[in-house]
Amino acid sequence: MSISVNSADSFDKWQNSKENYQKFQNDEKVESFKLFDYDSQAENLEEAYKESMKQFSQQYIDKYDKDGNGKMDYDEFISMQEAAYEEMFGEEIDMTIPGIDDAMKESFEQLSKLNPDDPDGKYIDAEEYGTFLSVVDAQDEETMDGQIDYVLFNTVPGMKGYDKALKNFYNAIWGK
After folding, report:
1. How crowded is residue 100: how many other Cβ atoms within 10 Å of its Cβ?
2. Residue-range domain boundaries for the chain
């Protein structure tokens, strides 16, 4: 099945999400941002959504994939987190602050251990990262629309039941 995905345009918007964060910090209205757009006329909307999410996630991972294996190891994950922090706050994250390193490790472990093909949890792949984005996407009224509220993107990992939701979404979306 051919799926029309407009990932490049939405990926640019994703990278330029600093404006949304600044608005959020200033208590201004924050608009949702579209991760991707797909052909809603596809025969199977769920399959189109899965493919679009996986393509977008792979594109995002590739941005930080230094060794070119198509996955994100812990060091690459930290680089991604540091870049996101610097983009949002305009300064480098201080990894010596108590709890920061533990929070990063926990986030990495939650995502990296979803894939049964990587039982040691050494990498985050597009399906695992896509699962995180799908969990966030499902928090609004229009599930599976590829649009994420910026506030939800930042708060979902702290929500009660997040671990269970990740596992359930991973199994439901990727069938593993």
Report:
1. 14
2. 7-174
